[in-house]
Amino acid sequence: MTAGRPATKDTAVAPQPGAVYQYECLTRPNIDPSELHDALLTTASLPGPLARSKAAPVLAISQDPYDVLPSTVGGLSPAEAHRLATALACPDRFLIATPDGSDARPFLLALVGEARRRGERVLVLTADAEAANQVIAAILTQESAVVRAMVGAEDTESLPAEVKTVASRVLGVGRVEETRKRLTDTVREIGLQLEQWNTAAGTWQQLRDLGRQMSEPTPPSEADPARTAETEKARVNLPLLRQELADLAPMVEAKKAGKLFSKGFWKATFHADLTKRAEELESLIQQTERTLSTVSDQTPLPLKGPDGAILTEYRRLCESLAATGLTPPTSPTPEAIALAYAAAEGGRQEAEASGNFARQTLADLESDPAATAVQFLNRAAVVVGPRAALGDLAISAGTFDRTFLESAESVTQTEWEAITSTSNRMILMGDFLSHSDSRQHPGQPLTNGSHHMTTTVTDDLWHMAHRPIWSRDDGPLVAHVATVVGDVTREPLADRPEIELRFGTTADGAYVLAAVAFPVSMPVAVAKAFMAGELGEGQLVPLGPTRWHADQVLVCWPLLESHGEGVWIDLEPGVREQVVPMDGLPVTAAVSFDPALWTREAAEAWVNEKTRVARSRRTTVLEPALA
């Protein structure tokens, strides 16, 4: 489907993150698009002239909503999928009529699930607490980040078990109290740890002093004579061996090059095999180095006399450190003591930093606990609550990409003003049809038998936005041609009295044909052919994604393939439409163009024009069989 003409500055709506839709207001006579858009987004009541005397506008989608067809919503019929995609594409207010007897809850849950799949943060408002609990329970099976908004006097303990855990008082104020307690405990525990470390500071110094004493060389008078002699011999021989090897190295290299004499001075002075002698020297050097290394590593630990007392003190100091939760050194050497101290100091610095952070966080929390509660609540992707909970922090301080309103037909003016401030994009579901009477002005008392009903603000919105192309009027099939206000006059067609013409007056006073009613027995394709042939009204009503054939000038909507082949009718020269009945209404399955008369570019422009009304819908009716 090609894009419509560019939206004007007054009516363009920036796409939401993750969405690919832009709308434009296409005017019918006497419609101010900017006034319409302002009315749909207003937080106040609908303007009287717009709600009561202006015709509804046409709002077109410039990109096919099925470009992001909801693939994760299972079990939807083609009609349901079409309703869902169209509703979510709307940039402001979309209304879904739920006639008495229909169960709209599954469709609401499908809408919420698809909105979440697109990354939206959503608010769901219900008529009462029981409905909110039911919605929460259903959403929790798919989404864990949920909050149940609370009414002021509502008791958390009265909620169902699965709902109680996600109540706003638990996840908001309750979470703040839990955090305050946890931070307070953390500050206290870290303070105790730092006190213990400060107490142990003297112990570490004593350990360092003992380590230095215990690492001092053993006096010669106390050393082992044999070990002393061996050490002394190694110290004397090592430099001599290294020097001999250094002197021998160039001669070994010369011999390898064939430059040494075989007799005389060289043979008498050195070993017959220079290479072998060099290897012996290397081995002796390594052995001597190992002897000296072993001697330096085997510092004897005195176990008696004064030295035994030093070791006893060392052990006592280590036990003192362990008692305070610190890790003592692994051995009484200066190196081991230094490593243990460095580890303890690192832990102290980390604890000190954690304590400072906890104290600052606690101070921030206590300075504005409500703001902290809002931060916790805003982590939830879905907030659900009755309309009476609009003052709850989870709603009043939250930000939402879209609001879903259940039982919208009963919303009061005061509630509406609060609800419209929650988000710019809303989907309203309600029994608007029980208040609907096209022969009277929206907003005026409606007569129902001997009773009078006063329409609500959402009824006014429905009357302003709902302009179907085809509908059923208690049986007869009705084709809507123009929007009128006030009463309508009904007259049978002269040569076909089974067809009824309905006339009325537009907002600017023109007397026009408003609708054509066909008998129940007439096939929908015949009615569609009559409108196209006799009145030139050929608006298409497609369903689902648009697909153009590459080898011919033919466009189709494959979502309707399961509904049979349908009936082909002529719309105008070179143009034929395949009509399929769905829910008793004509739906467009395909349109073919005579290639001798139409180019692909011209055909696309024609289809775009003939689907503008169908693509502009802000309303839909959820039939009982589809709910």
UniProtKB/TrEMBL annotation:
Region (Disordered): 212-231
Coiled-coil zones: 271-298
Keywords: Coiled coil
Lineage: superkingdom: Bacteria
Protein name from the UniProt record: Uncharacterized protein
